[in-house]
Amino acid sequence: MGRTPAVGDIVGDFSLPGGVLLQDRFERSDYALADQRGKPVVLAFYPGDNTPVCTRQLCSYSDGLDALRTSGATVWGISPQGVDSHESFARDRDLRIPLLADEGRTVARAFGIDAPLIGLRRSVFIVGPDGRLHWKRVGAVGATFPAPDVLARQLATIG
């Protein structure tokens, strides 16, 4: 497992396939971190679609999207499942955030959160508009996650 970036580090660019539920259609595209420069990005890495804790986490972020967007932030959910799985998950739970497929776990490895048995450690990174890591929480076990209000407070401190 690699080293997780430290707060203040420039986060390496990546691009992953994914999609987002808009009205009743799931719109697929590639998502590149470099395209988000100039605004903050919340990267929510989670082990799996349709699992109890992951479902609570992603539903809370989707439901709390307005509060997270007040800072101009984009929120992405990232896990090792494919885009078809993400579409089913988004439709089943009415998730309104993009879900990205890191099937080879290359991005998880780059963030130092690859975990052999579970795929990845539940982690949230906030990347500032300048591409630097502003805040992170890397889970040891993965049963908890930062609530949307915690993320909103962190986003509010980006200057």
Structure description:
The structure is a single chain. This protein is an alpha+beta fold and 159 residues long. Helices cover 26% and strands 28% of the residues. It is built from 5 helices and 9 strands. The strands form 2 sheets. A 7-stranded mixed β-sheet has the order 2-1-5-4-3-8-9. A hairpin with a 3-residue loop joins strand 6 and strand 7. The chain is globular, with a radius of gyration of 14 Å.
Structure described in brief:
This protein is α+β, with helices and mostly antiparallel strands and 159 residues long. The protein has helices at 52-63, 65-69, 83-93, 106-110, 148-156; strands at residues 15-22, 25-32, 41-45, 74-79, 99-101, 114-115, 119-120, 123-127, 133-138.
- Going across the biggest sheet, name each strand in turn: 2-1-5-4-3-8-9
Instruction: Tell me the major beta sheet.
Output: 7 strands, mixed
Q: What's the rounded overall pLDDT mean? A: 93
Q: Treating each run of at least 4 consecutive H or I residues as one helix, how many helices? A: 5
Strand content: 25-35%
Low-confidence stretches: none
Helix content: 25-40%
Rg, Å, rounded: 14 Å
User: Structural class, from secondary structure content?
Assistant: alpha+beta
Element-by-element helix/strand order: EEEHHEHEHEEEEH
Shape type: globular
Question: In angstroms, what separates the terminal alpha carbons?
Answer: 32 Å
- Would you count the extended β strands for me? 9
